[in-house]
Structures are given as structure tokens and as C-alpha cells.
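Hey everyone, long-time lurker, first post.

I ran two proteins through the pipeline my lab uses and got sequence/structure pairs for each. Pasting them in order. The first:
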Amino acid sequence: MRIVLGVAGGIAAYKAAHVLRSFTEAGHDVRVVPTRAALEFVGRATWEALSGHPVSSEVFDDVPEVAHVRLGREADLVVVAPATADLLARAAHGRADDLLAATLLTATCPVLMAPAMHTEMWQHPATRANVATLRERGVHVLDPDSGRLTGADSGPGRLPEPDAIAAAALALVDPEGKPRTQDLAGRTVVVSAGGTREPLDPVRFLGNRSSGKQGVALARTAQARGARVTLVAANLAVRPPAGVRVVAVETTAELQDAVRGAAADADVVVMAAAVADFRPAEGAAHKIKKQADGSAPPLALVQNPDVLAGLVADPPRTDGRPQVVVGFAAETGDAEGDVLAHGRAKARRKGADLLAVNAVGAGVGFGTEHNAVTLLDSGGEVVGTVEGSKDAVSDALWDAVVRVLPL
């Protein structure tokens, strides 16, 4: 795939070298187009060495190549990291005063911009208006992270991590390099991911093996397809997607409150988190000690609320509009039935619009890069199956959601 990596003039320009390396190591052909200011932070030799291509920032360099037109036309993907307040303003107003701005005007492929600037600049009404304009035109503008900025100040405006930028950018195209459909544009979705933990004492908890990879992939894919995404994250083992709103939780009760709160205006809620069915009846105030006689203290459990069933029975959307609810059922077969049989019973019991049933166990489902899912409707009938990477599963699930999503 042919990628143009634009680099604007901010201190975060050094991180773009890691974004470039992520693309080239994945086998993509990358042309770097820095602004004049960017070359004050990272020199031309670095970009040429890492990309294997000559680098220019000027429209009048190599005129016979007509680079200011050709680069944008031929690219499968354009990524700008960092995108400064100045670059966002020039792009929003259609300026063509350097090679990067001209390339943005001629690009017909997906464009992703990862802003980085001081908090005051990011929050200024002019910058917010420029970002809104770009998004209205179909440009994918990530929200910056919050954290340490240049100097001692902290706040929103930090460039997302390079691997998160690369993942968000590559999610905008399908495996063949074609632009991903924007069938979730204008929609608001909530995705839960990870595994809840129920404290036994100050140092121990009841938990599960979920890494959150499938939920994170679902959030990333929804964002790439145009949705506004909130990720309710329960103890993730992987980094959340760049640019999505993240609400961190630990327990099932916290997850339930966070999901219902975020879903007040959501079109779709996807419960991909592995939620603990039980919690200790009482958590110990101090670390539970070993017994002198070698016995184990009794552990009384109580059942947690059924978050998925509650979303169906009592929809959290406040304006009364329809809301699509999707659940996940991680199952193991037993003497009473196989994985699909348990999934069918759960689909009928929970009543979600869709239920994604997958087998879990040692080396299966949890923590892996691969998944195999059977999609059931609320009556337990099979409406689709998919096996492959968790990104592939995500695309298939969103395809199914779009088919039942009200207009």
C-alpha cells in the first residue's frame, strides 16, 4: 500500500519516525512529506533513511514529477502526525502553500490527522472550528491524548502513541487497500472491553483471562467506519485505540454504571467485556492470611447484575429512539450441551439484537490474535459466522449491526 506520511512542525515530530517504522515494517511503501518547520525538528536525512525515498517540503522541488498533484492522487492513505494547529488551519481553509498542504488538497484516499499542540491551542475556538470543518469533509481527526507536553505542563494535546496512530490509520482501509465504508458515520456507539475484577481483599481479586483485544478491535473498527466511540475499558492488557473516549473501570458494578451512562445517547451498545458473573459476598478489609492448620477460609459468592439483560430490559437511551444491543457469550461445552447450544439458550434468555458466541479456553479466544464467532439473533438463530483475526471479526460484526440498525 502507498502511504503519504505528512509531518508538521511540532516537537512531537520525532515520534513520527516511529509511525514511519510501523508502516515500513508492515510492508507499506511510504513517502514522507514534512513541512519546512518540521525539518527544524527532524532532518531530511532521517526521513530519507527510514523511508528509502527522497524527501521534499516544497512544491517547486522536482517540478517535472509534479509531486504536489501526483503524491495525493496516487496514495492509498494519507497520515499527518503530528498535525499542528497551523497545519489544521491551512488544511481547513484549503491552502496549498507547501507540498504537504497541496498533497492534502489532491488526496482522494482516506486521510487521518493526529493533532499535537499545547492544551490552550487545542481548546481554542479557532482550532475546534477547523477540526469540525475537516471532519465534516470526511477527514479523520483523532483527539489528542492527555499527558505531559513540552516543558512541565500537562493536559490534552499530547500526540497519541505511534503504534496507536498507525493502527488507527491502517483501520481506514481494508486488507486490499481500499477505503473502508463509512456506514457508521454520524452514529454513536459504546463498546465494553476487557475483564472485570471483583476484589477479595486489598491484594487479590476474582477475574478472568480476557485481554480486551476483541473489544479494542471493535472500537477501532467502528471509529474507522465513521462512528463516535466510547470504550468502557475493564483492565485492558492492550492499549486503547487512539482518538476514542475511554472510561476505565474495574468491577462489574462500575462497568454497568459506565456503560449505562455512556449509552444515554448511543445508537449501538456492544458488550464485548468478559463480565464476572459472581463477586465475593464481602470483601476482606485486610489481606487474607494463611491458616495455621492448612485450611482455606470459606469464600461466599453472590451473583452480579446481568448487565446485558439489563440493557435490553431497560434501554438506557434517554430520547426513546431504538438502540441496537450486541452481546458476547464466551462459552465452553459441557455435559449439558456444546458451545452453540449454550449460546442459543443465552441468546433467547438475554434478548439482545445480536449475540456473538465464541469458544474460550486454553489458547482459544482470550488473549489470542485469532477468534471464531457465531452470530445469533434474539431467537437463537444463526445469522452469520466468521473466523480470522480480531479485526476481521470486528468488521463482520459491524456489518451485521448495520443490517439491523434503524435509519
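...and the second, right after it:
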Amino acid sequence: MGRDGRGVKAASQSSIEITFTYKGARCRERIALQPTPANLKRAEHHRSAIMHAIATDSFDYTATFPNSNNAAKFADQRGDVELIESYLEAWLKRQKPHLKASGWDGYRKIVDGKLIPWFGKLKVSELKKKHMREKLQESTASNKTLANIQSVMRKALDDAINDELIDINPLANWCFSKIEPPKEEDEIDPFSKDEQAIILEQLTGQARNLIQFAFWTGMRTSELVALDWGDIDFVRSVVRVTRALTQKSKEAESTKTAAGRRDIKLLQPAVDALKLQKQHTWLRGAEVFQNPQTGQRWTGDQSIRKTLWTWALKRGGVRYRKPYQTRHTYASMMLSAGEHPMWVAKQMGHKDWTMIARVYGRWMPDADATAGNKAVGVFARSPSELLSNATV
């Protein structure tokens, strides 16, 4: 009654044994059918379906043979046992030494706030594109946020491959996005010359020095609060930016990009602010700017807003914008005055000027009637030279 050579044979009076190879191992499984000719034929079809599933990497051992010892063995080798929740928690801990504090905190928020609530009870091997697509379709977040969520999950699954929990990453080379309406306006909202003057009039001492310096250097808030007196070169009149201090980091970290490490030319209003600031923190030789309420280094944007920024704008009747707009104000002032976009880009820590042109293009002056004349004067031949060449 057996069908040797076809991977199917009678095992007992009430069962049939199926033999196949899975992940390099020879597997034998029994199905509860009497080994009649019809049932043996049926078992052959079942084995063929198993072989096809193995070939197309869609075979689920546990689902096909839930009571098999082999299922447990192969589950230990794959992500058929470990839940996404436990894997992500362990994975997140492993990432901490390799990420900046702000970057790791962003990962943590996505893992704890989205991925674990969405997929935590699934096994690692069970996650498919459709699961991610369904959750992202329901979300009201922007495409940028959706991309960040997918990026974190994709990186975790890449590591799950290295951990031999899964063979392929279901999110590889795939990214979900929604059709978004055109943005009404970007977030570039600089302060006018009069608004700057009003804000500074409301402030005194260290608070005024900080904001004036911010307006005239274009430094990010995280860079301003990390600034030490050792970063100031009064001889060359530059400030060296190498570090940033975010809300989540306990100490200053290197700038996010290589272009972010830069020398910023100190314009006179920035120099004036530093000279006045010397009487407050120069002798300590550490941080340039301090929170006047604590006598310690600022901890970030939030403490500046609460301590002096919101109060100054409200008292001066200036429409509220975040402190980061001092950076955009600097860019708009430089470009409106006709400074070269590449120079502005380097001052602000961008590797090229394409972003400057894209974001701040409306502050670049249009060409005037004399535009191009300098090039003509330097490179064009004189009328007499042109005439003599034409008559040769």
C-alpha cells in the first residue's frame, strides 16, 4: 500500500507518513488517514502543496503541523515563537549605544507609541506588508511621519534577518504614502527688522545677549545652548560649531552632519552681544549663555521659551513664532541683502545651496537692470576685436 519514492507511505493502519526536506533537514510527519489508495493519493497532493509552499517561501510549519516536534524546532530557528513586542524592546535597547539621545528617543516613541500597540502580539514571522499598510491607511499622520514609522520597523526587521529569525524583510524596497493636499505655506516665518528691535527692547542682560546673538548667527537653538567660550575665536572673528545639546541629551553631542561642523563669521551685532555677555560668564570659561534664573547652561528650546521668549513677544505685541525662527530670520536677512547663497549655506551648516534656494528663494533679490554687465566687462571682446576678426 505504500508509495515509496514519492515521499508518501503507510505508517500504521490509521496514519500516513509524509516525507520532505525543509531548510536542509529531512522531515517526516504523519496525517491521520487510513492508508487506502485514495487517501495515499490525497496525501501525495498534500505533500506537493507543502513542497510548493517551501519553494515559494510561504510554508508555515506550525500552521501545517501544529502538534509536531519539528514545528517547535523550526520555530526556535525563526521568528515563529518570539513576539514583535519582545523583539522590538530588546532591539531598542541594543540601538541606544549607537544613536544620539534625540535619535534614540525618536525611535522609542515610534516603538512604544505605534509599533508595539499595532503589531506587538504578532509573531516576528507573521508581519506582512498588509499589516503595515492597514495601520498606515488608518493614520492621520503626515507622509513624513509615516515614513519614519516604516523606517524604524524596516531597520528592526533587517536586524531580525541577521538574528536568523526571518529570511526576508517584508518591508524591503517598499514604502507606503498617502496623497496629501498641497501645503498652504512652509514654516519659514522670519521676524522683520522692527519686530527684532521690539523683542530686544523687552530683554536685558543675558537674555538680550542670547537673542541678539541668535538673530545674527543663524545658529540652531541646540547649537546655541551647547556653545562654550572655547568655541569663540575673537582674533579670526568666528565661532566654531561642533556640538549640539538637545532636550533629550544629558550632554552635548556632535552635530548631526559633517556640514553642521562649521565656522560662522561673527558679524558686528553678534560680536557686540558676546562682548556684553563676557561680564556674565567669561570668567567661568565654560558655557557662553546661561539661564539667568538658574545660573546654569540652558537645557534647550523649551526652557528658553518658558523663561524669556514667550514673555518678550507678548509684552512687545509681536506675533508669536518659535525661537527657531531666529535662524530663518538670519537667512532671510542675509539673502535679502544680496549675500551669496553658497556663503549663507555654509554659515548655516548646509552642504550646498540648493536647500537655501528652495526654502529661502523668495528672499533672494531679483536680477536688476545691470545684471550680467560685470561678466561682459570681464570676458567679452571689445567691438574693435570683434570687427577685426570679422574682416579677416
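Reply from user beta_strand_b:
Welcome! Quick read of the second one: The chain has a mean pLDDT of 85. Residues 229 and 288 are 5 Å apart (CA to CA).
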